[in-house]
Design a protein that fits this description.
Shape: globular
Oligomer: single chain
Radius of gyration: 20 Å
Strand content: 15-25%
Strand order of the largest sheet: 2-3-11-8-13-6-5-4
Order of helices and strands: EEHHEHHEEHHEEEEEEHEEEEHH
Helix content: 25-40%
Largest sheet: 8 strands, mixed
Number of strands: 15
Length: 338
């Protein structure tokens, strides 16, 4: 358990194994919070102009690959309750910690420091992570940890609502792309992974990263940031901070959706920085195709004026290459050309 950062005694400097080389360091982590990333009120879908809501989502997905949603139908008190349960996972006493902390690839629930490949990393990430499948719920819930005791019930109920929110957003996106209603239902969104990252306070955030620059390989990421900002998005070669709203979810367009939209929607690179005074916990819900699905530009989008710019990829193979290249999509796509 000495691998877990939060189990270390208080330190005044960053260990060498967590210090990034100068060219990869975040440097000034006090990047201003951006107010340009769109915040979209989903209640307007029903109370106002649905077409206008769709246009806002498509525009944000084209320009940023990121947006936030409010009035999404999930009460703020449920968001806080679930986040509290996630935070408990990183505060378990030793007798329970051993049950979920493992490097066994056969286990569905994994708790680890840095990454699943930390043993081969040159530099470690300043984070602890807990990750497991969540959809279909009936296939996975019984394999989740029994401690915290409220975990299975609370997170299970919450994940059902998150999946419904994801389907709602995907239907709006499909309509905005000119695809048939329900295009992303069934196998194309048949998987969901929960990944909870805990970033302990760090003595020198300018030397470390909670997550390095990467794109997401999934269809859609729904992120609950918590109360502490730390997410940064790369826009036009500059890093911008994403504001943490307690009642909002950050929506991130995944690379699989970029492929299906034939490059119309962007999958922005992003990272997580650390904080010298506050620990931060963030929960990401990755909605993704089933492994056997083929991800390719949608037929209704391509024609002689808009030819396909991507090939067809079996999603399981695509995801494997994504992890092998540590989320560097430029390197991932090159492997398909070799």
């Amino acid at each position: 358990m000495e691998k877990l950062i939060s189990n270390w005694s208080s330190m005044e400097s960053v260990p060498g194994g967590y210090t990034f080389p100068p060219e990869l360091r975040p440097g000034d982590t006090k990047i201003p919070i951006s107010h340009t990333i769109p915040v979209i009120d989903l209640s307007e879908e029903y109370t106002g102009d649905r077409t206008n809501t769709i246009q806002k989502i498509i525009k944000a997905s084209e320009e940023f690959g990121f947006f936030q949603v409010i009035n999404h139908g999930i009460p703020e008190n449920e968001m806080k309750q679930t986040m509290s349960v996630f935070e408990e996972v990183f505060q378990l006493p030793d007798e329970y910690e051993q049950i979920v902390y493992n490097d066994d690839p056969s286990k569905t629930c994994k708790k680890f420091s840095s990454s699943l490949r930390s043993e081969t990393e040159e530099v470690h990430l300043w984070r602890e992570s807990f990750r497991h499948p969540a959809y279909p719920l009936e296939e996975w819930q019984h394999l989740w940890p029994e401690n915290p005791t409220s975990y299975r019930k609370c997170v299970g109920d919450f994940s059902v609502k998150i999946k419904e929110l994801g389907s709602r957003i995907m239907n709006l996106i499909s309509e905005g792309l000119g695809l048939e209603c329900g295009y992303f239902d069934e196998d194309l969104s048949g998987s969901m992974i929960i990944s909870v990252n805990h970033y302990p306070s760090c003595p020198n955030p300018s030397l470390t990263l909670g997550l390095t620059k990467h794109s997401d390989a999934y269809l859609l990421t729904i992120l609950q940031q918590g109360d502490v900002s730390g997410l940064q998005v790369l826009k036009d070669g500059e890093w911008i901070g994403v504001e943490a709203f307690p009642d909002a979810f950050v929506i991130n367009i995944g690379y699989a959706l970029k492929i299906i939209s034939n490059g119309k929607l962007q999958s922005a690179e992003h990272r997580a920085v650390t904080n010298s005074t506050h620990a931060r916990t963030a929960a990401a819900f990755f909605i993704a195709p089933k492994g056997e699905c083929f991800v390719e530009p949608a037929e209704d989008i391509i024609d002689e004026h808009n030819p396909p710019i991507f090939k067809s990829y079996k999603y399981q193979e695509f995801l494997w290459r994504f992890f092998d290249k540590h989320g560097d999509m430029e390197k991932v796509m090159k492997t398909f050309e070799e």
